[in-house]
Amino acid sequence: MFKEYDVIVVGAGHAGCEAAASAAKMGSSVLLVTMNMHTIAQMSCNPAMGGVAKGQIVREIDALGGQSGIISDKTMIQFRMLNRSKGPAMWSPRCQSDRMMFAQEWRDTMENIPNLDFWQEMIEGLIIKNNRVVGVRTGMGIEIKSKSVVLTNGTFLNGKIHIGEKNFGGGRTGEKAAHGITEQLVELGFESGRMKTGTPPRIDGRSLNWDFMEEQKGDDNPEKFSYTNTPKLTKQRSCYVTYTNEKVHEVLRKGFDKSPMFSGRIKGLGPRYCPSVEDKINRFADKDHHQIFVEPEGWNTVEMYINGFSTSLPEEIQYEALTKIKGFENVKMFRPGYAIEYDFFPPTQLKLTLETHLIENLYFAGQINGTTGYEEAACQGLMAGINAHNKVHEKDEFILKRNEAYIGVLIDDLVNKGTDEPYRMFTSRAEFRTLLRQDNADIRLTVKGYHLGLADENRLERVLYKKETSEKIVKEIKNRKISPDDANGYLEQIGSAMLREKSSFYSILKRPEIDIEHIKTLDNEMAEYLRNFDEEVIEQAVIHVKYESYIEKELLMAEKMSRLEDLNINPNFDYERLHSISIEARQKLKKIKPQTLGQASRISGVSPADISVIMIHLGR
Amino acid sequence: MFKEYDVIVVGAGHAGCEAAASAAKMGSSVLLVTMNMHTIAQMSCNPAMGGVAKGQIVREIDALGGQSGIISDKTMIQFRMLNRSKGPAMWSPRCQSDRMMFAQEWRDTMENIPNLDFWQEMIEGLIIKNNRVVGVRTGMGIEIKSKSVVLTNGTFLNGKIHIGEKNFGGGRTGEKAAHGITEQLVELGFESGRMKTGTPPRIDGRSLNWDFMEEQKGDDNPEKFSYTNTPKLTKQRSCYVTYTNEKVHEVLRKGFDKSPMFSGRIKGLGPRYCPSVEDKINRFADKDHHQIFVEPEGWNTVEMYINGFSTSLPEEIQYEALTKIKGFENVKMFRPGYAIEYDFFPPTQLKLTLETHLIENLYFAGQINGTTGYEEAACQGLMAGINAHNKVHEKDEFILKRNEAYIGVLIDDLVNKGTDEPYRMFTSRAEFRTLLRQDNADIRLTVKGYHLGLADENRLERVLYKKETSEKIVKEIKNRKISPDDANGYLEQIGSAMLREKSSFYSILKRPEIDIEHIKTLDNEMAEYLRNFDEEVIEQAVIHVKYESYIEKELLMAEKMSRLEDLNINPNFDYERLHSISIEARQKLKKIKPQTLGQASRISGVSPADISVIMIHLGR
Ligand SMILES: Cc1cc2nc3c(=O)[nH]c(=O)nc-3n(C[C@H](O)[C@H](O)[C@H](O)COP(=O)(O)OP(=O)(O)OC[C@H]3O[C@@H](n4cnc5c(N)ncnc54)[C@H](O)[C@@H]3O)c2cc1C
Ligand SMILES: Cc1cc2nc3c(=O)[nH]c(=O)nc-3n(C[C@H](O)[C@H](O)[C@H](O)COP(=O)(O)OP(=O)(O)OC[C@H]3O[C@@H](n4cnc5c(N)ncnc54)[C@H](O)[C@@H]3O)c2cc1C
């Protein structure tokens, strides 16, 4: 009934879709198996993509030739560049999405990929031969063979939904949980754990009084995620901001004794940085209000997502608390919020390719690795899909370094440090965040994507042009000079220090108060010259001028680090010989089998002294 | 958390959506509760609306002010008027739908109805007080009050899915079954039964060889369902026709010993007129091929529905059999076909308003009443919604007679005859099918819809214009005459008998070989006159000219019948007194409590002699 596939992907969430798309586009024959073909790329929680650090990830996925950026662009209803007022390392694209269109667009995209087949069913087990995965077994008992398998089960493995004192099995509201896989993997020697996450109630926008909320419009000049020529938004839908208050908190507190979290019914750890509203008022008891975003679920729907109000308190408490929010007096709910507990596999059991140590050619990606968030899931899917393809076709592993991409940071963190609570990306996790900007993901990654066979010629040309041209512009800005006579009038007018001698535009642009528009006003010829280039390229040049020193500092640091990074460790290296390092370090090293000394240095529990010892044994 | 609603509708299938929409539009406060708001108006089986007799129902729903016609028009990818070559009683509109768009359009429509609220959850019980329903109880235990409840659970009540020897609980593939309601109703004294239906596998259109199939295009000049000004299709997608063959049958027969139907594992009766492919080759063993339609599931998707290949044989048998069909040699399946068994409630327990006899203000509509098909479900939903609203607002019952609408035939059949197998509409079920045409549903029903408060002013004006104008045209055609000299040249040319004397266009148009285009060619003045009217109106006039005698005969018959129909029977009429009628008739009459002598006459088991006895007792 089925041929033997190169790659079988289990689950069609964000991870599964990117995995299947990338492996198929690179030339693998791929089967995507998912429980329900109507829920391909369902956004389980908020209808939004990107955000701080997450937006950078979407840009990176796009730069490599993944789909999430393009699909987000085609289905967004609002776009904002967060943190515009801060340095470019912090600029973070974020969009609201039309939930239905997003899923539909993913489905259309997937159906148009030639090597990609579909099968709708629950997978209940893997077929393993000699510690190597060779296929999957479906709920109906069908065996489908493959050279590799990528598991992306999301929150479905033994998923259990909690609302107040009630709980029931489910992978998402209204959907079944998946059983069998955890049990089999544990039997095979995998360690599994339990995590939880939550979602807010959904409400009827028609029942709200918008006059009492602050409108939050999209950017005036909305950008987008993809470096390709996806269309820009011409109209947008607004979100609204409101706040909880003491009355809301009071009502919520009434439900605490029935809370599945506070009562200990939920064992799994939740995302600390995406806490439920009860968590927030519990942990920050002194704060008398918390912000809430009311976000539309699509272009036309009246359904609203209440960002900031994730909760698993009893539904009548949720309702009563909502009615105490300004503008929510007559609120009507569509469904209550809930918490969900699910199995995950501590990611220290993975290689940097996302292949498991225990079972060859078996890859894990997404929430199953203890992460949270669509973007975190999607990028793992992309990487697992690439590596599964490469392994099957005897090509090199594809690993991104911490100084190359947030994706590199994420996977390096997961594999080396593991995670106790749902792992979410932050800019603070990246040592080199001035290098890992949203504006240069293409410059960092598209050449790689091209060599993988994922990013097409067109992308390559675009990025080469952007790189060369922005460098040219920087050079030009450095070369061209202006005299005090010509400059000082305008500089005085805008309150910037006057020149004493002929100076390069470079030195002027470096001033914090000066932007490229000032330069254009200052000098007609510069204005004329710059008119030849589009905004994106000029922006790239400006960032390089303004942040050159930061960038260079980080480049230096990265280079230092990469010396360790270039020292490979044989996977069969015998750590037992190293009597002088701590037992904990020895155990971790044996388990994680770091591929480089750099990776070894980041394993939690491995000290700099331990690294020196290993270095000596490596003969350095 | 909830106010008391006028009407709660349980289930958002075709029946539930029409019910909720109609009651809300008429002014009731309505809550629609459904298990998953992402599956509102999901087409469970084939992506198509209408067809023989079913298309007439959609037109009737539309004429009354329901939604199904409008939504079908907005989301169709192909339209055909079936049986165009037969008389107008047989003309039946049918469309292929974009499955996703259809559901999305329904959802948008519902969200824009002011009095309509939503709640996503499974309903597990009803709240009953003094044999009257006063609300529902959800899976989480929330009690929601209402003055009436419409149950439209479709195939979900204790739904059980079968594929070969495997079976599992589910209301549709990938969706949960609903429990609790049947059990409670049975406890309350309801009789419940078990039925089954089936669906074919879904396949990947990219794996088919279209060259070996016949293309079936949409109509050249596609019409539509709604009498309102919904847009007409400007492009269409084709379906394809192919056939099973002996090899296919051979493979299928290999699976018979594992068939859940033949082995007796499925207890419920299936739809005789929509049989599974294994049923077909079993019952018609002499036929060496059966027709198969390959129907696209939407504008862009590669997913194909294989109409005519419904099956619950083991999935590998399904697959192997498919590969033996011409053009299917390399077929890839997305998921296998399956059969589903579910609870229904014999509809003899209902009044003609679809209210149950046992529990006041409780209505049943759709598949729960033993019917099959979206159209059958939708029209029941509409009628139940109307009647629930009217009852709550102390307005008259709304019942359609057998000579007024297929909807009337359907409900009358269900209530009086009951059904052992899934009931599907056919033109043969209607005694007055020349009256119940697809072209005049508006003339038959829109005035009623207007008085109900469902069809708007605009619709009323349109229909009054159509009626008056078409009558005027008939009169004109009767009045205007043409001389042999003017006519015979052309008549001879087109092979129609020549005139002997000056004759009316009426007499000429009545000839089978003559259509209105001929009349226009025959006479410039007629052509000029007709140019003032649009096609729909002219067609109406032509039908009246050509089929006048049939129409009048049926009108006469209907009048005769309606004499019995007008004789009301007191619901408390004591049938026990009637010793001279059969025991069976007495029991049935006591149970069904016919509202008129006409209805009594149609109860299966009640003889004409019995009717005479009752008539005497009624004092006639
Ligand atoms: C209630 C809830 C609240 C959340 N809240 C947040 C939040 O506040 N912030 C945040 O960043 N993230 C949140 N998330 C997480 C976010 O939804 C996930 O991180 C993201 O969807 C994970 O993507 P994934 O591809 O790993 O898995 P998912 O999107 O969960 O997709 C898993 C897919 O696998 C399929 N599947 C599972 N098991 C099987 C099987 N055995 N056989 C076949 N198919 C299978 C499923 O049908 C599904 O298609 C929340 C998730 C949920 C459910
Ligand atoms: C596998 C299959 C094959 C079919 N094949 C054919 C065919 O070949 N030809 C044909 O004409 N028809 C066929 N049908 C029938 C057709 O789908 C139905 O007639 C039609 O959908 C019935 O509409 P409905 O509104 O009564 O119920 P459904 O469309 O089944 O909708 C029921 C709704 O109620 C909800 N629901 C159920 N129980 C609860 C509860 N307790 N609480 C809350 N919500 C609830 C469900 O989520 C769903 O939204 C098939 C159906 C199935 C499932």
Automatic annotation (TrEMBL), chains A, B:
Homodimer. Heterotetramer of two MnmE and two MnmG subunits. This is tRNA uridine 5-carboxymethylaminomethyl modification enzyme MnmG. InterPro entries: FAD/NAD-bd_sf, GIDA_C_N, MnmG, MnmG-rel, MnmG-rel_CS, MnmG_C, MnmG_C_subdom, MnmG_C_subdom_sf. Belongs to the MnmG family. NAD(+) binds at residues 270-284. FAD binds at residues 11-16. It comes from Emticicia aquatica. Its cofactor is FAD. Residues 545-616 form the tRNA uridine 5-carboxymethylaminomethyl modification enzyme C-terminal subdomain domain. NAD-binding protein involved in the addition of a carboxymethylaminomethyl (cmnm) group at the wobble position (U34) of certain tRNAs, forming tRNA-cmnm(5)s(2)U34. HAMAP family: MnmG_GidA.
